[in-house]
Amino acid sequence: MADIVVIGAGLGGLPTAYELRHLLPQPHQVTVISDASTFTFIPSLPWVALGLTALESIQIPLEPQLTSRKIG
To answer: What is the 3-state secondary structure (H, E, C) of 19-47?
Structure first.
């Protein structure tokens, strides 16, 4: 059984963790370490800077997304 740690929950880390969880059998553990509790879709930040959208509209909480996919 492997314990895999993905550092960072951004545009690279989240898809990597999702794919590893999909490919590996359940006894293997996938864990994500992040310094933030939310995922921010970085490509949309210019819209926030220009006042075209609210920051909250481009963020999602990480914990429900990870636990629903059995990622620690």
So the answer is: HHHHHCCCCCEEEEECCCCEEECHHHHHH
